[in-house]
Design goal:
The chain is mostly beta strands. The chain has two domains: 164 residues, 3 Solenoid (Pectate Lyase C-like), CATH 2.160.20.10; 217 residues, Single-stranded right-handed beta-helix, Pectin lyase-like (Pectate Lyase C-like), CATH 2.160.20.10. The chain is 13% helix and 47% strand. The N and C termini lie far apart (49 Å).
Length: 435
């Protein structure tokens, strides 16, 4: 059944707020019905979908996010690996099952408004500068609240396909505590702001991402499982995840981390192309973070002008991860509850992530003659007390300015690996993406 019984023409000019009308249409749609969103521009805040529903965007239908945080009521959710109170997304699939979002429509988050709030038009000011001046880099990403575009939370049997997401204020598409999710032919573009991840797969199982095109300002497709003590408390791993046949055009590639406290396992990444991106296949964590990443298979990657084909840093971005202790913060009764959640640490014996049983093969990474940015073939850095183990690279060809670093890696096998480099390592590239 296709529901078109409301007067959408009254609110499709992108100026009249359409939230209530669309929410009523969602609520009134019968079980296993389809709600058609006709062509037009709809200015909306948070919308909440229900189970057994299909939302179909007509070609040319566009949801435009309101640039007022009040339009997105705060909900209990998870952001960057920590359970906190945070604004809802534009489209919210929370505690639902059997939901489809489909059609050649668009969600536009009006990102520049939110990006300027965070770091200013010059990317050096805004709220970020104020927090940096107080040595609070570790909390600012949580404090400056910005809406996501689609949140799938504690849901199962979800399909999202053919839609375009652009200019997200924060993460574009977040999948948390979910099972059986299929993301197909989704385009993510024009998202060049802070924390504008593409697709975040967080503590979820049996997720397939395929045939997507992504150009982001941060990690393009990323797998997570919780940050530090809060992630350890929740203890829900990410597992049985497949990512295939996608194109990456900017951002930090296909990523595991950095919030991996509950572990990541049984991942298959294959048939991905990368063009002008910062990273190819990336893994990152922090000294204070634990978790085990294991049984990851990566095959048939093609990279052109990628700065770091393999960036696996287990002590990534210390400034972002260096935070005040919970004991110190709890002494001040004015400390926000969210700060305490973010500051929670793992047991010391569980800290430092372990990477093991990673198999990578059939990768070609080349540089065009006019490529001028830094490039480093390998950057694999762990801790001597918790080295990466059983790592295999097979049938690999890489062109790069530098070879890079391999630190604390045991049982490393290079089989038919050819690397062409032009110069010695530049220390300036030792701490990539520490913004």
């Amino acid at each position: 059944m296709v529901m078109t019984n409301l007067d959408f023409n009254a609110v499709n000019d992108g100026r009249v707020v359409a939230t209530q009308l669309l929410q009523r249409a969602i609520d009134d749609c019968p079980d296993y019905g389809t709600l058609l969103i006709p062509k037009g521009n709809y200015l909306v805040g948070a919308l909440f979908l229900k189970s057994h529903l299909t939302i179909r965007f007509e070609t040319g239908a566009q949801l435009i996010g309101i640039t007022a945080i009040e339009a997105y009521p705060e909900i209990q959710t998870r952001v960057a690996g920590v359970e906190v109170s945070w604004p809802a997304a534009i489209l919210n699939l929370i505690d639902v099952e059997d939901v489809q979002i489909e059609g050649l429509g668009t969600i536009d988050g009006q990102g520049p408004y939110w990006w300027d709030l965070y770091w200013g038009q010059d990317q050096k000011s805004g709220q970020r500068q104020l927090y940096d001046q107080r040595d609070l880099r570790w909390i600012v990403d949580y404090e400056v609240k910005r809406p996501r575009e689609i949140l799938v939370y504690n849901a199962q049997r979800i399909t999202i396909q053919d839609i375009t997401l652009r200019q997200s204020g924060f993460w574009n598409l977040q999948i948390t505590y979910c099972q059986d999710v299929h993301i197909n032919r989704v385009t993510i573009k024009d998202s060049n702001g802070p924390s504008t991840d593409g697709i975040d797969i967080d503590s979820s199982q049996h997720v397939l991402v395929e045939n997507c095109q992504l150009a982001c300002g941060d990690d393009c497709i990323v797998i997570k499982s919780g940050r530090d003590g809060d992630g350890w408390r929740v203890n829900r791993p990410a597992e049985y995840i497949e990512i295939k046949n996608c194109q990456i055009y900017s951002g930090y590639g296909v990523v595991i981390g950095s919030e991996i406290s509950a572990g990541v396992r049984h991942v298959y990444i294959h048939d991905i192309t990368f063009q002008e991106s910062g990273c190819g296949f990336r893994m990152k964590s922090a000294a204070s973070r634990g978790g085990i990443v294991e049984d990851v298979r990566v095959e048939r990657l093609k990279m052109v002008n990628v700065q770091f084909p393999f960036s696996w840093l287990m002590n990534w971005h210390p400034q972002y991860n260096q935070k005040a202790t919970v004991a110190h913060l709890s002494q001040d009764p004015a400390t926000p509850k969210m700060w305490l959640a973010v500051a929670e640490q793992m047991p010391i014996e569980q800290q430092k992530s372990q990477i093991r049983d990673i198999f990578v093969r059939d990768v070609v990474a080349t540089l065009t003659p006019d490529y001028a940015l830094p490039s480093r073939a390998f950057d694999l850095q762990a801790f001597p007390e918790k080295p990466m183990t059983n790592i295999t690279f097979e049938n690999i060809q890489i062109e790069a300015a530098e070879f890079g670093k391999i630190v604390a890696v045991q049982q490393l096998a290079f089989q038919n690996v050819n690397v062409s480099v032009a110069q010695e390592n530049n220390q300036a590239n030792d701490h990539y993406d520490n913004r």
